[in-house]
Design goal:
12% strand, globular, 4-stranded parallel beta sheet
Length: 131
């Protein structure tokens, strides 16, 4: 895995549920779900970008089913998918370079067991920072 150049932006990767109201402190808002969140109108989401290509594959998402007991294995498998998807990772890293604060948005109800948590860890590790 190629290491990304550490930046101050990577220190400012925030996580937030897409259903929560947008705030100015969110900075650049990126939805990292493959599917559009149920019941959410696009205007209310206040997205800057929908990065569905970096989300877990449909098969991995369905296997995980947001079951916390499967989270460790989900994390391992999702990291493998991210490592095999350098284009989408590079696109998101470019956004991190340009914006002082980036908020990764997710629709899952569980704030500790979702793909945005794993993606943030992955990006911070590539940048040489501790999650």
């Amino acid at each position: 895995m190629t290491q990304a150049k550490p930046t101050s932006a990577t220190q400012h990767i925030r996580l937030k549920r897409v259903y929560d109201p947008p705030e100015n402190s969110d900075g650049f808002r990126v939805l990292v779900d493959r599917l559009w969140p149920r019941g959410l109108h696009k205007d209310r989401a206040a997205l800057d970008l929908w990065c569905k290509d970096i989300a877990p594959s449909d098969s991995l998402r369905k296997w995980f089913g947001h079951d916390p007991r499967r989270f460790a294995e989900f994390r391992r498998r999702y990291w493998q998918e991210l490592e095999r998807n350098p284009g989408a990772v590079a696109d998101l890293e470019a956004i991190l370079e340009k914006h002082p604060v980036v908020t990764l948005l997710y629709s899952a109800r569980d704030p500790e067991h979702n793909q945005a948590v794993v993606l943030r860890e992955f990006l911070l590790k590539r940048a040489g920072r501790k999650p």
